[in-house]
Amino acid sequence: MEKLFCVFPAICEADTTLPDDINDRAPLYEKHLGQPIIMTFDEFQEFSESHYPIFEKLRQCKDLDTRLRIMKYELPKVCYSSILWNQAFGSNESENLRSYNGIVTLEVIKDQALEYMIFRLSSFEFVLYASESADGKGVIVLSQTDCYLPSMHSEHVAALTVIFQNAGFSIRSSEPSCTTATTICYSKGAYINNAYSSFTLNPEHSNTID
C-alpha cells in the first residue's frame, strides 16, 4: 500500500514581517492549517529536499529566536500517521481524521554521528524511514505498525518508545496523537526501507508500558 503523507505549507516566507500581536497572526495560521497537501512518499522526499537550504540555515544558526522562527513559521509541517481534512482551530481529532496508516513517529537524540545512528536504526525491520531532524539535533524515526485503529495509536507509541530506549536510544520527543503535524525533515543520507515488516503490539510489549 502506497504511503501518503499530509503536508501543511509553511506559514510565511523568510522575509515576511509577522504582526507583533499573536492574535493578528490568525489569518496566516488559518491559511496554513486549512490547505493540506496529500503527497506520496517519493513526492514528500522531493518536497523536503527542495527545502534543504532552509534546513542548512537552521542547523547553522546560533540565534535562538531566529531558529524558533524558522522551525515554527518558515518550514512546512507534516502529519506522518494520518490524512487530515485540516487542522482548523476548535476542531477535534475525529473531525479532522480522513484515514490512518499506522505509522509511529519518534525523534531520538542525535548523540552520535548521523550515519552510525541510521545504521543502528536500520537493524529494526519495522523502521521504514530515518532522517536528521530539521534542526539537526535529533533523528526522526518512522516505524510502520500493523495498527489500524487510531484509538490504539498511543499504545504503539509507548511500546516503541520503550523498545528504542532499551536499545540505547534517548527519546527527544514522541507524540501520542495520530493527527499531530510536525516540522518536515530531510538529510542526504536518509534511510529508506522498502522491505520493512510491520511492528505488532503483543502482551509482552504491553507489560512494559506503565
Principal-axes shape call: globular
Q: How far is the N terminus from the C terminus?
A: 33 Å
**What is the radius of gyration computed over CA atoms, rounded to a whole number of angstroms?**
17 Å
Care to count the β-strands?
A: 11
What is the strand arrangement across the widest sheet?
9-6-8-7-11
Based on secondary structure, the structural category is alpha+beta
Helix content: 25-40%
Report the order of strands and helices.
EHEHHHEEHEEHEEHEEEH
Number of DSSP helical runs: 8
Spans of at least 5 consecutive residues with low confidence:
none
Q: What portion of residues belong to β-strands?
A: 15-25%
Number of domains: 1
- Would you tell me the overall average pLDDT? 89
Note the main sheet: 5 strands, antiparallel
Explain what you see.
The chain has 210 residues and is of the alpha+beta class. It has one domain. The protein has helices at residues 26-33, 41-49, 52-60, 64-74, 93-96, 114-121, 153-166, 203-206, and strands spanning 4-8, 37-40, 77-79, 82-84, 97-100, 103-109, 127-132, 138-144, 171-174, 182-183, 191-192. A five-stranded antiparallel β-sheet has the order 9-6-8-7-11, with helices on one face. A four-stranded antiparallel β-sheet has the order 2-1-3-10. It has a two-stranded antiparallel sheet with strand order 4-5. The longest helix has 14 residues, at 153-166. The radius of gyration is 17 Å and the shape is globular.
Write the layout of secondary structure elements.
Layout: E1 4-8, H1 26-33, E2 37-40, H2 41-49, H3 52-60, H4 64-74, E3 77-79, E4 82-84, H5 93-96, E5 97-100, E6 103-109, H6 114-121, E7 127-132, E8 138-144, H7 153-166, E9 171-174, E10 182-183, E11 191-192, H8 203-206
Antiparallel strand pairs: 1-2, 1-3, 3-10, 4-5, 6-8, 6-9, 7-8, 7-11
